[in-house]
Amino acid sequence: MSAGRQTLIDDCFVNDGQRMRHDDVLSLLANRLEPVTGTTTVSVVGAQGRIVAVPVTAPGPVPRSDNAAVDGYAFAHAAYLKGPDHLPVAGRIAAGATATGPVPPGRCVRIFTGAPMPAGADTVAMQEDCTVLQDGAIAVPAGLKAGANRRRAGEDFMPGDPVVRDGQTLRPQDLAALAATGHGTVSVRKRLRIAILSTGDEIVPAGAEAGAAQVHDANRPMLLALAGQAATTVTDLGHVGDDADALRETLATAAADHDLIITSGGASLGDEDHMLAVLDELGKRHLWQIAIKPGRPMMFGQIGDTVVLGLPGNPVAVLVCFLLYARAVIGHLAGASVTPPAAYTLPAAFAIDRKKTGRREFLRGWTEADPETGVLNAHKFPRDGSGLVSGLQAAYGLIDLPEHVDAVAPGDPVRFIPFAEMGLMPGWSGDG
Ligand SMILES: Nc1nc2c(c(=O)[nH]1)N[C@H]1C(S)=C(S)[C@@H](COP(=O)(O)OP(=O)(O)OC[C@H]3O[C@@H](n4cnc5c(N)ncnc54)[C@H](O)[C@@H]3O)O[C@H]1N2
Ligand code: MOO
């Protein structure tokens, strides 16, 4: 974060106990956060996942000239309409060659896919449709339209057309567009510096021996993977116990050289939960307690100019809070355009007899076609516990039940947000 830049407004306007609505949390994050990353120039090769800092336009037309879309024979359509259907071959143009020409009327040139159209030719007959006659002339079938099998200069990009816009996260096809329009480099945001910390006396690292009262640290590998994208660098701060001094020191040290710290655990008000007190002591808190389930005790604040997100300890709350809020925070700080994920309205394949109104709930779910009707339904993981990592694995997305809903009957329309819409892509295997 640049020195002297005030990213967050320094007031703690949320009273403890007063829970903020989901939409208001998103507005708060959008209003209080701005990009903190500088810019750098990188090669187009390998730039996937980086965030565009400066919009790019096409300097010239693409294709750069009219060219053949197929291997075959190029000729003037007007002469072909009037003249004989066999055309002597007047030359040959391969892809990459300079166009010769002009092609004399009533003649054709041998041409290959991607080769520039010679002057005097506007139409290409595909070689499979043509016959090479004994005298070497080409018999062209009747019925070809003017301009057939010809690609026009600029039909993909005209000079000045936008190629990528600022705030856009570069996808492989965007790299193709940059390269196709002649760009070898692109100006992108520098990587956002994120630190990840687990808290709790009961936590032991993945792979360590654990007693019956201990819990393996599931959150840290998940958060490191979620936060570790091309547009970020991620520091693993490991784990601290329920010790206010150790937590204070770890957070203060990390704040010196990170833009964002994400913690999990210790977010509520138990005697061993220290996040709230330590954050209040070291910095400012802007939010604690959201009217959602899971993830209610998430906190958002700052230590100096470093943003702090204190996620609850339950792994389900961690994933949900990351996808709903941390992703938006990272986007705002890293200079990305932040847009709400697309949600699909689908019939519920489950029932919920009673839901508390005034609270937004995000259930773990997936979609499945009804075997009889073929209609896609939303299914929910049968158990709701916030500690169930297996439910996260079974899910393909979140079922979003708004505040006013008090029950769900089978067939009721519900909003389903696929994980892929929140940046969690399924892998290569068919079943995610
Ligand atoms: N009296 C109240 N108790 C609880 C409340 C409440 O409002 N009043 N809220 C509940 C809700 S909702 C949640 S969520 C949790 C949040 O608690 P904390 O953020 O303080 O988290 P912990 O107590 O440290 O841990 C909760 C749970 O998660 C396990 N955990 C923690 N870290 C990890 C990790 N890195 N990997 C795997 N599992 C982890 C931890 O062992 C606990 O089981 O509080 C409820 N209680
Ligand atoms: O809301 Mo707590 O976040 O998991 O149940």
From TrEMBL:
Q: So what does this thing catalyse?
A: adenylyl-molybdopterin + molybdate = Mo-molybdopterin + AMP + H(+)
Q: Which GO terms describe its molecular function?
A: metal ion binding; molybdopterin molybdotransferase activity
Q: In the UniProt record, does the keyword Oxidoreductase occur?
A: no
Cofactor(s) needed by this chain = Mg(2+)
Highest taxon in the source lineage:
Bacteria
> If you read the UniProt record, what top EC class would you report for this enzyme, in one word?
transferase
Q: Can you tell me which residues the record assigns to a coiled coil?
A: none
- EC number(s) recorded for this UniProt protein: 2.10.1.1
Q: Which residues form the MoaB/Mog domain?
A: 195-332
Q: Which GO terms describe its cellular component?
A: cytosol
What the entry lists under Pfam families is as follows: MoCF_biosynth (PF00994), MoeA_C (PF03454), MoeA_N (PF03453)
Task: Cite a single GO BP annotation.
Answer: Mo-molybdopterin cofactor biosynthetic process
Q: Which InterPro entries match?
A: MoaB/Mog-like_dom_sf (IPR036425), MoaB/Mog_dom (IPR001453), MoCF_biosynth_CS (IPR008284), MoeA-like (IPR038987), MoeA_C_domain_IV (IPR005111), MoeA_C_domain_IV_sf (IPR036688), MoeA_linker/N (IPR005110), MoeA_linker/N_sf (IPR036135)
Q: Which Gene3D superfamilies match?
A: MoaB/Mog-like domain (3.40.980.10), MoeA, C-terminal, domain IV (2.40.340.10), Molybdopterin biosynthesis moea protein, domain 2 (3.90.105.10), Molybdopterin biosynthesis moea protein, domain 3 (2.170.190.11)
Q: In which pathway does it act?
A: Cofactor biosynthesis; molybdopterin biosynthesis
Q: Which UniProt keywords apply?
A: Magnesium, Metal-binding, Molybdenum, Molybdenum cofactor biosynthesis, Transferase
- Which PROSITE patterns does the entry link to? MOCF_BIOSYNTHESIS_2
List, alphabetically, the NCBIfam families matched: Glp_gephyrin, molyb_syn
Question: Could you tell me what this protein does?
Answer: Catalyzes the insertion of molybdate into adenylated molybdopterin with the concomitant release of AMP.
Similarity comment text for this entry: Belongs to the MoeA family.
This chain's protein is named Molybdopterin molybdenumtransferase
Record the organism: Oceaniradius stylonematis
